[in-house]
Amino acid sequence: MRQNFLIRLFCLCLFPVFTMAQNTDNFRQPYPLGTKLPEASAKNFIGQAYIAPITVNRELNVPMSNVTFEPRCRNNWHYHKGGQILVASAGIGYYQEKGKPARRLYPGDIVEIAPDVIHWHGAAPDSWFAHVAVSCNPQTNEAVWLSPVGEKEYQEATSQAENVYAEANRVLEAREQAIVSIAAYTGKGDLAHLRQALVKGLESGMTVNEVNEVLIHAYAYCGFPRSLRAIQTFMQVIEERKSMGIKDVEGREASAIEDGGSRYERGRDILAEISGTSAAVPKAGYAVFAPTIERFLKEHLFADLFERDLLTYRERELATVSVLAGVGGVEPMAYGHMSICLHLGITPEQLTALLNIVEINLGKKSSDPLRDVLGQLTDKK
Protein backbone atom coordinates (compact mmCIF):
# COMPACT_ATOMS: atom_id res chain seq x y z
CA MET A 1 0.00 0.00 0.00
CA ARG A 2 2.75 2.42 0.97
CA GLN A 3 4.68 1.59 -2.20
CA ASN A 4 1.64 2.37 -4.38
CA PHE A 5 1.15 5.67 -2.54
CA LEU A 6 4.77 6.67 -3.14
CA ILE A 7 4.49 5.80 -6.83
CA ARG A 8 1.36 7.95 -7.19
CA LEU A 9 3.04 10.81 -5.31
CA PHE A 10 6.08 10.61 -7.58
CA CYS A 11 3.87 10.75 -10.68
CA LEU A 12 2.05 13.80 -9.34
CA CYS A 13 5.40 15.54 -8.84
CA LEU A 14 6.38 14.85 -12.43
CA PHE A 15 3.05 15.55 -14.14
CA PRO A 16 1.02 18.21 -12.32
CA VAL A 17 -1.33 20.63 -14.04
CA PHE A 18 0.43 22.83 -16.58
CA THR A 19 1.46 26.33 -15.59
CA MET A 20 -1.14 28.79 -16.88
CA ALA A 21 -0.58 32.33 -18.09
CA GLN A 22 -0.91 35.04 -15.45
CA ASN A 23 -4.38 36.31 -14.64
CA THR A 24 -6.25 37.76 -11.66
CA ASP A 25 -6.41 34.31 -10.06
CA ASN A 26 -2.75 33.30 -10.23
CA PHE A 27 -0.76 36.56 -10.34
CA ARG A 28 1.24 36.15 -7.15
CA GLN A 29 1.68 39.26 -5.01
CA PRO A 30 1.94 40.00 -1.28
CA TYR A 31 -1.13 42.23 -1.04
CA PRO A 32 -4.79 41.82 -2.06
CA LEU A 33 -5.79 42.42 -5.67
CA GLY A 34 -8.77 44.48 -4.56
CA THR A 35 -11.43 45.65 -6.99
CA LYS A 36 -11.43 47.25 -10.41
CA LEU A 37 -10.85 50.98 -10.32
CA PRO A 38 -14.05 53.00 -9.99
CA GLU A 39 -15.14 54.75 -13.17
CA ALA A 40 -13.97 58.16 -11.96
CA SER A 41 -10.41 56.84 -11.60
CA ALA A 42 -10.41 54.35 -14.49
CA LYS A 43 -10.83 57.19 -17.01
CA ASN A 44 -7.24 58.21 -16.19
CA PHE A 45 -5.87 54.76 -17.11
CA ILE A 46 -5.34 52.89 -20.35
CA GLY A 47 -6.11 49.24 -19.64
CA GLN A 48 -7.42 47.50 -16.54
CA ALA A 49 -6.14 48.27 -13.05
CA TYR A 50 -7.24 47.20 -9.57
CA ILE A 51 -6.94 48.89 -6.18
CA ALA A 52 -6.90 47.64 -2.58
CA PRO A 53 -6.46 50.01 0.39
CA ILE A 54 -3.73 48.80 2.74
CA THR A 55 -4.00 51.30 5.58
CA VAL A 56 -7.32 52.02 7.28
CA ASN A 57 -6.29 54.05 10.35
CA ARG A 58 -6.72 57.67 9.26
CA GLU A 59 -5.00 58.91 12.41
CA LEU A 60 -1.70 57.61 11.02
CA ASN A 61 -2.08 60.07 8.13
CA VAL A 62 -0.22 57.83 5.66
CA PRO A 63 -2.72 56.52 3.08
CA MET A 64 -1.39 53.50 1.19
CA SER A 65 -3.01 51.36 -1.49
CA ASN A 66 -1.97 48.35 -3.52
CA VAL A 67 -2.43 49.03 -7.23
CA THR A 68 -2.32 46.14 -9.72
CA PHE A 69 -1.94 46.64 -13.48
CA GLU A 70 -2.71 44.13 -16.21
CA PRO A 71 -0.07 43.90 -18.98
CA ARG A 72 0.25 47.18 -20.96
CA CYS A 73 -1.95 49.03 -18.47
CA ARG A 74 -0.64 52.47 -17.41
CA ASN A 75 -2.01 55.65 -16.00
CA ASN A 76 -2.03 59.05 -17.74
CA TRP A 77 0.65 61.65 -17.31
CA HIS A 78 -0.02 63.32 -13.95
CA TYR A 79 1.56 64.89 -10.90
CA HIS A 80 0.89 64.97 -7.16
CA LYS A 81 0.89 68.29 -5.36
CA GLY A 82 2.23 66.58 -2.24
CA GLY A 83 4.42 63.94 -3.91
CA GLN A 84 4.16 60.16 -3.89
CA ILE A 85 6.20 57.05 -3.07
CA LEU A 86 5.87 53.82 -5.05
CA VAL A 87 7.09 50.45 -3.73
CA ALA A 88 7.12 47.78 -6.46
CA SER A 89 5.84 44.51 -5.03
CA ALA A 90 5.27 42.03 -7.90
CA GLY A 91 5.75 41.60 -11.64
CA ILE A 92 7.57 44.06 -13.89
CA GLY A 93 6.54 47.66 -14.46
CA TYR A 94 7.71 51.09 -15.57
CA TYR A 95 7.99 54.58 -14.19
CA GLN A 96 8.81 57.60 -16.34
CA GLU A 97 9.24 61.28 -15.56
CA LYS A 98 8.57 63.82 -18.27
CA GLY A 99 11.69 64.32 -20.41
CA LYS A 100 13.58 61.33 -18.92
CA PRO A 101 14.02 57.67 -19.97
CA ALA A 102 11.57 55.17 -18.50
CA ARG A 103 12.79 53.16 -15.53
CA ARG A 104 12.05 49.43 -15.44
CA LEU A 105 10.72 48.36 -12.02
CA TYR A 106 11.05 45.05 -10.18
CA PRO A 107 9.79 43.83 -6.78
CA GLY A 108 11.49 45.79 -4.01
CA ASP A 109 12.29 48.86 -6.11
CA ILE A 110 11.29 52.21 -4.59
CA VAL A 111 10.40 55.37 -6.51
CA GLU A 112 10.35 58.71 -4.67
CA ILE A 113 8.34 61.28 -6.63
CA ALA A 114 8.74 64.89 -5.58
CA PRO A 115 5.72 67.23 -5.56
CA ASP A 116 4.62 68.54 -8.98
CA VAL A 117 6.86 66.12 -10.97
CA ILE A 118 4.97 64.99 -14.09
CA HIS A 119 5.16 61.22 -14.58
CA TRP A 120 3.31 57.98 -15.40
CA HIS A 121 3.66 54.40 -14.19
CA GLY A 122 2.23 51.03 -15.15
CA ALA A 123 2.89 47.47 -16.28
CA ALA A 124 5.38 46.14 -18.83
CA PRO A 125 3.93 45.03 -22.19
CA ASP A 126 4.32 41.35 -21.28
CA SER A 127 3.84 41.33 -17.50
CA TRP A 128 1.39 42.05 -14.74
CA PHE A 129 2.67 44.58 -12.20
CA ALA A 130 1.76 45.68 -8.70
CA HIS A 131 3.03 48.46 -6.48
CA VAL A 132 2.12 50.07 -3.19
CA ALA A 133 1.26 53.74 -3.67
CA VAL A 134 1.97 55.95 -0.66
CA SER A 135 0.28 59.36 -0.62
CA CYS A 136 2.65 61.94 0.90
CA ASN A 137 1.40 65.07 2.68
CA PRO A 138 -2.20 63.81 2.37
CA GLN A 139 -3.71 66.85 4.02
CA THR A 140 -2.79 68.98 0.98
CA ASN A 141 -2.03 66.37 -1.67
CA GLU A 142 -4.00 66.12 -4.86
CA ALA A 143 -3.42 64.29 -8.13
CA VAL A 144 -3.61 66.46 -11.24
CA TRP A 145 -4.32 64.37 -14.33
CA LEU A 146 -2.99 65.29 -17.76
CA SER A 147 -2.90 63.64 -21.20
CA PRO A 148 -2.90 59.84 -21.82
CA VAL A 149 0.32 57.93 -22.56
CA GLY A 150 -0.40 56.92 -26.14
CA GLU A 151 0.51 53.54 -27.61
CA LYS A 152 3.46 54.85 -29.63
CA GLU A 153 4.78 56.84 -26.66
CA TYR A 154 4.42 53.82 -24.37
CA GLN A 155 6.05 51.45 -26.88
CA GLU A 156 9.03 53.76 -27.40
CA ALA A 157 9.56 54.25 -23.66
CA THR A 158 9.40 50.55 -22.77
CA SER A 159 11.44 49.43 -25.80
CA GLN A 160 14.20 51.90 -24.97
CA ALA A 161 14.48 50.49 -21.44
CA GLU A 162 14.39 46.88 -22.63
CA ASN A 163 16.98 47.40 -25.37
CA VAL A 164 19.43 49.63 -23.50
CA TYR A 165 22.10 46.89 -23.57
CA ALA A 166 21.18 45.33 -26.92
CA GLU A 167 24.30 46.45 -28.79
CA ALA A 168 26.71 45.52 -25.99
CA ASN A 169 25.05 42.11 -25.62
CA ARG A 170 25.91 41.13 -29.19
CA VAL A 171 29.17 39.71 -27.83
CA LEU A 172 26.99 36.72 -26.92
CA GLU A 173 25.35 34.73 -29.71
CA ALA A 174 21.54 34.67 -29.87
CA ARG A 175 21.60 31.07 -28.65
CA GLU A 176 23.77 32.03 -25.67
CA GLN A 177 21.54 34.98 -24.80
CA ALA A 178 18.56 32.63 -24.83
CA ILE A 179 20.36 30.18 -22.52
CA VAL A 180 21.09 33.01 -20.08
CA SER A 181 17.44 34.10 -19.96
CA ILE A 182 16.09 30.56 -19.64
CA ALA A 183 18.52 29.73 -16.83
CA ALA A 184 18.00 33.00 -14.93
CA TYR A 185 14.20 32.72 -14.94
CA THR A 186 14.46 29.06 -13.92
CA GLY A 187 16.75 29.93 -11.01
CA LYS A 188 14.36 32.68 -9.92
CA GLY A 189 11.30 30.47 -10.33
CA ASP A 190 9.64 33.06 -12.59
CA LEU A 191 7.58 30.76 -14.79
CA ALA A 192 5.46 33.48 -16.39
CA HIS A 193 8.46 35.15 -18.01
CA LEU A 194 10.27 31.85 -18.54
CA ARG A 195 7.68 31.02 -21.20
CA GLN A 196 8.86 33.88 -23.42
CA ALA A 197 12.52 32.93 -22.89
CA LEU A 198 11.79 29.34 -23.91
CA VAL A 199 10.20 30.53 -27.15
CA LYS A 200 13.22 32.72 -27.87
CA GLY A 201 15.46 29.72 -27.27
CA LEU A 202 13.58 27.69 -29.87
CA GLU A 203 13.55 30.63 -32.27
CA SER A 204 17.33 31.00 -31.88
CA GLY A 205 17.75 27.49 -33.32
CA MET A 206 17.93 25.42 -30.13
CA THR A 207 16.32 22.00 -30.31
CA VAL A 208 13.76 20.79 -27.79
CA ASN A 209 16.35 18.47 -26.25
CA GLU A 210 18.91 21.28 -25.94
CA VAL A 211 16.44 23.55 -24.17
CA ASN A 212 15.47 20.64 -21.93
CA GLU A 213 19.14 20.15 -21.14
CA VAL A 214 19.40 23.71 -19.78
CA LEU A 215 16.42 23.02 -17.50
CA ILE A 216 17.87 19.67 -16.40
CA HIS A 217 21.27 21.25 -15.75
CA ALA A 218 19.61 23.93 -13.61
CA TYR A 219 18.41 21.44 -11.00
CA ALA A 220 21.94 21.01 -9.67
CA TYR A 221 21.99 24.71 -8.73
CA CYS A 222 18.38 25.60 -7.88
CA GLY A 223 16.90 22.22 -6.94
CA PHE A 224 14.49 19.67 -8.40
CA PRO A 225 11.29 21.69 -7.66
CA ARG A 226 12.26 24.68 -9.81
CA SER A 227 13.79 22.51 -12.50
CA LEU A 228 10.67 20.35 -12.73
CA ARG A 229 8.34 23.36 -12.78
CA ALA A 230 10.42 24.84 -15.59
CA ILE A 231 10.23 21.56 -17.54
CA GLN A 232 6.45 21.46 -17.04
CA THR A 233 6.22 25.02 -18.34
CA PHE A 234 8.27 24.02 -21.39
CA MET A 235 5.92 21.09 -22.00
CA GLN A 236 3.03 23.53 -22.18
CA VAL A 237 4.91 25.89 -24.49
CA ILE A 238 5.63 23.00 -26.88
CA GLU A 239 1.98 21.89 -26.85
CA GLU A 240 0.74 25.43 -27.47
CA ARG A 241 3.13 25.88 -30.39
CA LYS A 242 2.09 22.51 -31.79
CA SER A 243 -1.56 23.58 -31.66
CA MET A 244 -0.58 26.63 -33.75
CA GLY A 245 1.04 24.40 -36.36
CA ILE A 246 4.61 25.06 -35.24
CA LYS A 247 6.72 21.90 -35.32
CA ASP A 248 9.82 22.32 -33.15
CA VAL A 249 12.90 20.20 -33.86
CA GLU A 250 13.34 17.60 -31.14
CA GLY A 251 17.06 17.09 -31.87
CA ARG A 252 19.41 14.30 -30.94
CA GLU A 253 19.85 12.64 -27.56
CA ALA A 254 23.04 12.94 -25.53
CA SER A 255 25.79 10.58 -26.70
CA ALA A 256 26.53 7.42 -24.72
CA ILE A 257 29.42 7.65 -22.24
CA GLU A 258 32.25 5.34 -23.28
CA ASP A 259 34.84 6.21 -20.61
CA GLY A 260 35.23 3.19 -18.34
CA GLY A 261 36.72 5.06 -15.38
CA SER A 262 34.86 5.60 -12.12
CA ARG A 263 32.33 8.41 -12.08
CA TYR A 264 34.22 10.14 -9.29
CA GLU A 265 37.46 10.17 -11.28
CA ARG A 266 35.73 11.31 -14.44
CA GLY A 267 34.02 14.15 -12.62
CA ARG A 268 37.25 15.08 -10.85
CA ASP A 269 39.08 15.28 -14.17
CA ILE A 270 36.34 17.34 -15.84
CA LEU A 271 36.40 19.84 -12.97
CA ALA A 272 40.18 20.08 -13.26
CA GLU A 273 39.88 20.66 -17.01
CA ILE A 274 37.27 23.41 -16.87
CA SER A 275 38.69 25.18 -13.81
CA GLY A 276 42.39 24.90 -14.56
CA THR A 277 43.00 23.67 -11.00
CA SER A 278 44.96 20.44 -10.67
CA ALA A 279 43.05 17.45 -9.35
CA ALA A 280 46.08 16.79 -7.11
CA VAL A 281 45.45 19.92 -5.00
CA PRO A 282 44.72 18.84 -1.39
CA LYS A 283 41.04 18.96 -0.45
CA ALA A 284 39.90 21.76 1.81
CA GLY A 285 36.76 23.50 3.05
CA TYR A 286 33.46 21.70 2.41
CA ALA A 287 35.26 18.73 0.80
CA VAL A 288 36.91 17.94 4.13
CA PHE A 289 34.01 18.96 6.35
CA ALA A 290 31.36 17.06 4.32
CA PRO A 291 33.12 14.51 2.09
CA THR A 292 29.80 12.99 0.98
CA ILE A 293 28.71 16.17 -0.80
CA GLU A 294 32.13 16.42 -2.44
CA ARG A 295 31.66 12.90 -3.81
CA PHE A 296 28.17 13.75 -5.06
CA LEU A 297 29.53 16.86 -6.81
CA LYS A 298 32.24 14.92 -8.59
CA GLU A 299 30.15 11.86 -9.48
CA HIS A 300 26.87 13.44 -10.35
CA LEU A 301 27.34 17.10 -11.23
CA PHE A 302 30.67 17.03 -13.04
CA ALA A 303 30.34 13.48 -14.40
CA ASP A 304 26.66 12.68 -14.96
CA LEU A 305 25.70 16.19 -16.08
CA PHE A 306 28.81 17.81 -17.57
CA GLU A 307 29.58 14.69 -19.62
CA ARG A 308 26.29 15.04 -21.48
CA ASP A 309 27.25 16.59 -24.82
CA LEU A 310 24.01 18.38 -25.68
CA LEU A 311 25.58 21.54 -24.26
CA THR A 312 29.21 22.60 -24.36
CA TYR A 313 31.16 23.33 -21.17
CA ARG A 314 30.93 27.00 -22.10
CA GLU A 315 27.15 26.87 -22.41
CA ARG A 316 26.81 24.97 -19.16
CA GLU A 317 28.82 27.58 -17.28
CA LEU A 318 26.87 30.46 -18.82
CA ALA A 319 23.72 28.67 -17.66
CA THR A 320 25.18 28.01 -14.21
CA VAL A 321 26.09 31.65 -13.53
CA SER A 322 22.64 32.71 -14.76
CA VAL A 323 20.85 30.22 -12.49
CA LEU A 324 22.92 31.41 -9.52
CA ALA A 325 22.00 35.02 -10.32
CA GLY A 326 18.35 34.01 -10.23
CA VAL A 327 18.74 32.14 -6.95
CA GLY A 328 20.58 35.06 -5.31
CA GLY A 329 22.69 35.18 -2.17
CA VAL A 330 25.23 32.63 -3.43
CA GLU A 331 28.08 34.94 -4.44
CA PRO A 332 30.87 32.53 -3.35
CA MET A 333 29.53 29.91 -5.78
CA ALA A 334 29.11 32.56 -8.48
CA TYR A 335 32.74 33.59 -7.92
CA GLY A 336 33.88 30.02 -8.55
CA HIS A 337 31.82 29.54 -11.67
CA MET A 338 32.65 32.94 -13.13
CA SER A 339 36.30 31.99 -12.63
CA ILE A 340 35.62 28.84 -14.64
CA CYS A 341 33.96 30.97 -17.33
CA LEU A 342 37.08 33.10 -17.66
CA HIS A 343 39.27 29.98 -17.81
CA LEU A 344 37.08 28.59 -20.61
CA GLY A 345 37.68 31.73 -22.65
CA ILE A 346 34.46 33.56 -21.87
CA THR A 347 35.54 37.20 -21.76
CA PRO A 348 34.69 39.80 -19.10
CA GLU A 349 32.66 41.59 -21.80
CA GLN A 350 30.62 38.44 -22.37
CA LEU A 351 30.04 37.99 -18.64
CA THR A 352 28.98 41.64 -18.50
CA ALA A 353 26.49 40.90 -21.28
CA LEU A 354 25.19 37.95 -19.25
CA LEU A 355 24.64 40.26 -16.28
CA ASN A 356 22.99 42.86 -18.53
CA ILE A 357 20.44 40.22 -19.54
CA VAL A 358 19.93 39.25 -15.90
CA GLU A 359 19.39 42.92 -15.01
CA ILE A 360 16.76 43.44 -17.71
CA ASN A 361 15.00 40.17 -16.82
CA LEU A 362 15.24 40.14 -13.02
CA GLY A 363 16.43 43.58 -11.95
CA LYS A 364 19.56 45.09 -10.41
CA LYS A 365 19.09 43.19 -7.15
CA SER A 366 19.95 40.02 -9.07
CA SER A 367 22.68 41.45 -11.32
CA ASP A 368 24.58 43.92 -9.12
CA PRO A 369 25.99 41.39 -6.58
CA LEU A 370 27.49 39.42 -9.47
CA ARG A 371 28.82 42.59 -11.11
CA ASP A 372 30.78 43.07 -7.88
CA VAL A 373 32.05 39.49 -8.16
CA LEU A 374 33.13 40.07 -11.77
CA GLY A 375 34.92 43.23 -10.66
CA GLN A 376 36.85 41.25 -8.05
CA LEU A 377 37.88 38.68 -10.63
CA THR A 378 38.99 41.19 -13.27
CA ASP A 379 40.89 43.23 -10.66
CA LYS A 380 42.96 40.13 -9.90
CA LYS A 381 44.16 39.83 -13.48
From TrEMBL:
Q: Which domain of life is it from?
A: Bacteria
First and last residue of the signal peptide:
1-21
Output the Gene Ontology terms for molecular function.
peroxiredoxin activity
Alphabetical keyword list: Signal
NAD in keyword set: no
Q: Where does the Carboxymuconolactone decarboxylase-like domain start and stop, copy by copy?
A: 156-231, 291-360
Q: What Pfam families is this protein classified in?
A: CMD (PF02627)
Q: Which PANTHER family does UniProt cross-reference here?
A: BLL4564 PROTEIN, RIBD C-TERMINAL DOMAIN CONTAINING PROTEIN
Name assigned to this protein: Carboxymuconolactone decarboxylase family protein
Q: Which organism is it from?
A: Parabacteroides distasonis
